[in-house]
Amino acid sequence: MYHGTRQCSRFLSIIAVLLLSGLSTQSAFSSNDSIKMAIISLAPPAKIYRQWQEFADYLSSKTGREVKIIVPRGFKKIKSAVEDKTVDIFYVNSHIFYKLTEAQKAEPLAQMMNLDGSIYSNSVMFVRKDSGIDSLQQLKGEKIAFVAPMGAGGYLAPRAAFYDAGIQTKVDTEEKFTKNLTSSVHKVLLGDVKAGTMCGLNYKLMSERIKTGDLKIIASSADYPENVFGIRADLPAALKKQISEVMIGMDKDINGRKILDGMKGMKIKKFVKYDPETEHTTRALRKSADFK
Questions:
Q1: What pLDDT is stored for residue 175 in this prediction?
Q2: pTM
Q3: Would you give the DSSP letter of residue 110?
């Protein structure tokens, strides 16, 4: 009898632990918690805060939660922040998002639609007009300016284009990472590198601010997916749904449209439902670019 009572007590203890675990999981993100929003960008932190504060305030007004902007620098930092739960949602390029989902750390909230009305873009490779270079094959042995090692438009897509053209950039060229779109243009203009690469739409926007008349585009990459808003995979489904609906509905709201108008400099037109097919595109680019 005593043995049976002890077994029953142990069983009830296990049930209690499981129930408490479930409760702690559900209450890990309470209704009073703020939303920590990370923005991965090449821009200086002060500029990022200026660019995204109105968006954060809008999201806060629609969700009833304070939204705090956080600016981790680089893939390793954002990955650590997601794992440590020091960020909740994050705006990253499609290559970084792909890596986070591959590690089962993230789920999508929304995807950026660019000013061309597409969730895809491509990259361009440009040189000085007087360089005598008209093809990627002529860049063998030269210095090439890429933007950042985990960039989608600033490295993955153009690197894939080089590899498809028979040029292994890590072997046949000298890769230079500028971490800055303006620097990439200036380095080509000054002759510090023979060619530069970046998102074609960014190049177009840059050309409106910097004199690029001495440059010419010699090649374009295959399409790559635009930036993605993701959320930690362990957060409540109801919160994911709420934030996603706010983002996707911005262009249908008068205040939301006003904020989106101010984001055109970041080539953002609006946010739309995430298309999982974009992951196949990133996977194919990684294969072409010989990413392990």
A1: 96
A2: 0.86
A3: E
